[in-house]
Amino acid sequence: MANKMKQINIGLLGAGTVGGGVILVLNQNRDLITERVGAEIQIKKVLARHPEKVRALDASLPTTDKIEDIVNDPDISIVVELMGREHPALEYMEAALRGGKNVVTANKDVVATHGKELFELAAAHHVDFLFEAAVAGGIPIIRPLKESLAANRISKIMGIINGTTNYMLTKMTQEHMDFAEVLKEAQDKGYAESDPTADVGGFDAARKIAILASIAFNSRVGLDDVYVEGIDKISSRDIEYADELGYVIKLLGIAKQKEGKGVSARVHPTMLRKDHPLATVNDVFNAVYVEGQPVGEAMFFGRGAGRMPTASAVCGDIIESTRNILAGCTGRVGCTCYEAKPMLPPEEIISPCYIRMLVEDQPGVWATIASAFGENKVSLKTVVQKRSLGTLAEIVVITYGVSEFALRKAADALSKLAVVARICNIIRVEDSTLE
Ligand SMILES: NC(=O)C1=CN([C@@H]2O[C@H](COP(=O)(O)OP(=O)(O)OC[C@H]3O[C@@H](n4cnc5c(N)ncnc54)[C@H](OP(=O)(O)O)[C@@H]3O)[C@@H](O)[C@H]2O)C=CC1
Ligand SMILES: N[C@@H](CC=O)C(=O)O
Ligand code: NA
User: Fold this and answer.
1) Residues of the chain with CATH 3.30.360.10
2) Is 137 annotated as contributing to ligand binding?
């Protein structure tokens, strides 16, 4: 007599862009997934505010508006949280873990802020807490860091980890599109968060780099530890200058670990050399670049946002958890933050910089400006003067590596000079030849 195929039931919280994608993937690839896993994965209930949206995706799926119907259902083994935002997603996941259910989420807001509590709950109940989709959408990066690269000492993890802003910067660079127009496009495509200020302001990327740094360096990096700047001050002038000087502008998350000095984590627009592997990562694509010993350099590339790529990562976690349930080994890889390393203060982070300013277009001005840089120990690599605006000239400088502290002092001294009308923008440069 043939053995009856096992069935693993999941409860889905939220069926929007990503949740809807999960419903579609589990239906479209049902046979293939069942065969690979050796069990059927069935969505038993969907928590939804608008059941009609779920019915439009799959009319057979039961819906509920009560979380208790899912977290108290003994037949549900995996709760998949795809509602977004911090509350009540956190409380719902806590209830699921306390109820002994495995949890899969794409929610970086919750993982970055409450990861520790959730890991502790998962460990206490010997269940999985998986969040591959929370960083870089469809790209596998959490499991590779925790498992495939587990033998490495990682010194640097740097990436384009926000699809919305990469899409926007690409369109602004290649098609000279306007900021507001291109943001609307990214929202329509389902890339942006429900509140897109998290994308544009760099906070979404900050959550992701905090999560990546915590895993890579085995030490918890909180959101407050990340220095954050968004893309809202990037103008077409900066994009043009970057191009002329051999760079592209990308919103990067950058985390480094220096022996004896601690860990740093930051998110800001960055001028990146055109020959860097991350420089050609465009549109909604994300990439995470890792330097470690013994692996050397490794880069992970793919779609960082959008319905189906993100659903791919969520379903990968559902499958991983299902396999662990079948093998009786849930909770196998839990929290990896077993150290408490010091954070390097942002003022001590050293980076080359691009500074664009408007100055009086008259003889002797350059000597005054150069001495302000010199007095603050900022060495200059390149100076460009191309444009005049009435009595003003636009000057661009690229510095060698400078600490944030020295940069702020120099910027302060420059802005007090009568000949400097305005510092228009300062952008960090990632260029190993200038460090
Ligand atoms: N979109 C993307 O490309 C990516 C998203 N993520 C993350 O995935 C998660 C989901 O994002 P996304 O699918 O884009 O978001 P959506 O806003 O498209 O979907 C969220 C869904 O959750 C439902 N929901 C929200 N709050 C509640 C609640 N209290 N009770 C019941 N249902 C609720 C919403 O219902 P209703 O429709 O009624 O409002 C909606 O259907 C977020 O954490 C996001 O950061 C991660 C990677 C990529
Ligand atoms: N809003 C996010 C979605 C995925 O995390 C992004 O644009 O990357
Ligand atoms: Na991912």
Assistant:
1) 142-303
2) no
| d(C-alpha 378, C-alpha 354), whole Å | 12
| Cβ < 5 A residues, ion ligand 3 | 132, 136, 139, 141, 313
Q: Which ipTM score applies to this complex?
A: 0.99
Q: What is the pLDDT of residues 105-121, one digit of tens each?
A: 999 999 999 999 999 99
Considering every ligand atom shown, identify the ligand nearest to the alpha carbon of residue 309 and give its number. Answer: 1
Average pLDDT over residues 31-59: 97
Give percent of the chain with pLDDT exceeding 90. Answer: 94
Residues in the chain: 435
Burial-class residue 349 by CB neighbours within 10 Å (0-12, 13-18, 19+).
Answer: buried
Nearest atom of ligand 2 to the alpha carbon of 192: 1
pLDDT band at 4 (very low <50, low <70, confident <90, very high): confident
Domain boundaries 142-303, CATH class: alpha beta
Q: What is the pLDDT of residue 3?
A: 66
Residues with CB under 6 A from ligand 2: 137, 162-164, 191-193, 199, 204, 304-305
Helix, strand, coil percentages in the chain from 3-state DSSP, rounded to 5 = 40, 30, 30
Residue 64 marked as a ligand binder: no
Catalytic residues: 208
Model pTM above 0.95: yes
17 is in an annotated binding site: yes
Distance CA 132, CA 310 (A): 9
> To test the ligand 2 pocket, which listed residue (199, 267, 283) has its Cβ within 8 A of the most ligand atoms?
199
Domain(s) labelled CATH 3.30.70.260 in the chain stretch across: 348-430
Q: Please name which of 146, 114, 151 lies closest in space to residue 216, comparing C-alpha atoms.
A: 146
Nearest CA to ligand 1 atom 44: 84
Q: Report the alpha-carbon distance of residue 97 to residue 105 in Å, rounded.
A: 12
In this structure, whether the domain defined by 348-430 belongs to CATH 3.30.450.150 is answered with no
262 is in an annotated binding site: no
Q: Which atom of ligand 2 is nearest to the CA of 310?
A: 4
For residue 133, give the ligand 2 atom closest to its CA: 5
Q: Are strands 353-360 and 380-389 parallel, antiparallel or unpaired?
A: unpaired
Fold category of 6-137+308-327 in CATH = Rossmann fold (3.40.50)
Cα–Cα distance measured from residue 408 to residue 76, given in angstroms and rounded to the nearest whole number: 55
Asked whether the CA dihedral 321, 323, 329, 333 is positive or negative, the reply is: negative
Domain with CATH 3.40.50.720 in the chain: 6-137+308-327
